């Protein structure tokens, strides 16, 4: 087993509240174990461009409660090339970096796999507001993002109530509707549209009409950014904007539209995110010490456990119907059944929540 003397930490992809708490946990745990820690600035591009800083306990403890990522982030295309990869490996060699912990989403984990395959043991820690990595119950940043959305929805609700309006609010989440779904339930929204379940537009319109007839003044409709209206001829428009006009025209209720966009990614991480980031970060360091590589720390029924990155990414593609030819070839029937069970667990959860959202939206 390789003796680990120095590890590098990076954050990559969309920033997520709690990434700094993960950096802190990784650094303090490693220092405690006598392992030196360096920060890689700007995600994988920092590895390519040799942007390395020492991480001290003093520095990481000053950032534990901050939003964003103080190691900065990007989505690095050059890292996907052989040339970029060679530069990254050269930087690791130059700084005697024995292993990498990469905090981010699926793109980040693909990078970690590439490094692992080239002899730099790498471990992933999940960090994305979307909670869209099927293999883990939870990703760092999700709770903060939902609470930020909820705070915004409550403000929209105040003004809707005053003016007897409806507000259609689009929230982030990429192809995953969980932020929209959970905040719709928590805010008392009258309807929610997510990519995972076909939206019954007519039913929503009828519900709004009925609610107004019964005297309801303010109403919220939460729409995930991954839902689109197909205008035909290959033109798709964001569903929330389309539904605003439709809702106003068909219900007679004055209807506004708002897109929360990137504000959802900012802000101080909640306790849940700091705690999960800390537990995942510590686990990642332990895995490195055990000589493990190419794993991602996932949350499974309240436990923080390692999963093979390729297995996790393949499960994710299975859930999203994006499996490529040969993806499942190396897996046994038992492993494939395990992947299917993970996907089903996610589908069941979404279905249950969607039903609740509609059952109590009156
Ligand atoms: O993955 C996090 C996320 O905020 C998504 O919800 C969103 O679709 C995307 O990133 C936005 O990416 P960018 O910051 O590159 O605009």
Account of the protein in words:
Helix 1 (19-32) runs antiparallel to helix 3 (57-63). The chain has twelve helices and 13 strands. It has 362 residues and is an alpha/beta fold. The chain has helices at residues 19-32, 44-48, 57-63, 82-94, 106-117, 142-163, 178-187, 201-213, 239-251, 271-289, 309-319, 333-359, and strands spanning 6-11, 36-40, 52-54, 99-104, 122-126, 166-171, 191-193, 219-224, 228-232, 235-238, 255-259, 295-300, 303-308. Helices cover 46% and strands 18% of the residues. A seven-stranded mixed beta sheet has the order 3-2-1-4-5-12-13, sandwiched between helices. The protein has a four-stranded parallel beta sheet with strand order 7-8-6-11, with helices on both faces. The chain has a two-stranded antiparallel ribbon with strand order 9-10. It has two domains: 6-141 and 269-322, Rossmann fold, CATH 3.40.50.450; 145-266 and 349-359, Phosphofructokinase domain (Rossmann fold, 3-Layer(aba) Sandwich). Residues 14, 105, 128-130, 172-174, 225, 265 line the site of 6-O-phosphono-beta-D-fructofuranose.
Q: Tell me what the CATH architecture of the largest domain is.
A: 3-Layer(aba) Sandwich
**Beta-strand proportion:** 15-25%
Straight-line distance between termini: 61 Å
Mean pLDDT: 97
Major sheet, described briefly? 7 strands, mixed
At a glance:
This protein is α/β, with parallel strands linked by helices and 362 residues long.
């Amino acid at each position: 087993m390789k003796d680990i003397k120095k590890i590098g930490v990076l954050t990559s992809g969309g920033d997520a509240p709690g990434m700094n708490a993960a950096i802190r946990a990784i650094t303090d745990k490693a220092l405690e174990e006598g392992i030196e820690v360096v920060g890689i600035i700007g995600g994988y591009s920092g590895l390519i461009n040799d942007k390395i800083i020492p991480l001290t306990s003093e520095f990481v403890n000053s950032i534990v409660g901050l939003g964003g990522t103080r190691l900065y982030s990007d989505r690095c295309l050059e890292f996907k090339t052989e040339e970029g990869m060679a530069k990254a490996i050269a930087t690791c060699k130059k700084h005697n970096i024995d292993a990498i912990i990469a905090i981010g989403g699926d793109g980040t984990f693909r990078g970690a796999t590439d490094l692992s395959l080239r002899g730099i043991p790498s471990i992933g820690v999940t960090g994305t507001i979307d909670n869209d990595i099927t293999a883990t119950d939870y990703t760092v940043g999700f709770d903060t993002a939902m609470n930020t959305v909820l705070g915004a929805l409550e403000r929209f609700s105040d003004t809707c109530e005053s003016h007897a309006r409806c507000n259609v609010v689009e929230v982030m989440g990429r192809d995953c509707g969980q932020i929209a779904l959970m905040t719709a339930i928590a805010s008392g929204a009258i309807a929610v549209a997510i990519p995972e379940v076909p939206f019954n537009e007519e039913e929503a319109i009828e519900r709004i009409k009925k609610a107004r007839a019964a005297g309801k003044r303010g109403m919220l409709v939460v729409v995930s950014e991954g839902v689109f209206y197909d205008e035909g001829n290959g033109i798709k428009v964001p569903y929330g904007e389309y539904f605003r006009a439709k809702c106003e025209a068909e219900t007679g209720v004055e209807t506004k539209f708002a897109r929360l966009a990137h504000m959802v990614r900012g802000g101080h991480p909640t306790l849940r995110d700091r705690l999960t980031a800390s537990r995942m970060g510590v686990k990642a360091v332990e895995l490195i010490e055990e000589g493990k590589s190419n794993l991602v720390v996932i949350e499974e029924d309240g436990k923080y456990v390692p999963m093979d990155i390729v297995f996790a990414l393949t499960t994710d593609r299975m859930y999203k119907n994006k499996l490529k030819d040969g993806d499942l070839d190396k897996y046994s029937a038992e492993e494939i059944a395990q992947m299917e069970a993970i996907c089903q667990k996610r589908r069941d959860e979404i279905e249950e929540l969607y039903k609740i959202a509609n059952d109590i939206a009156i």
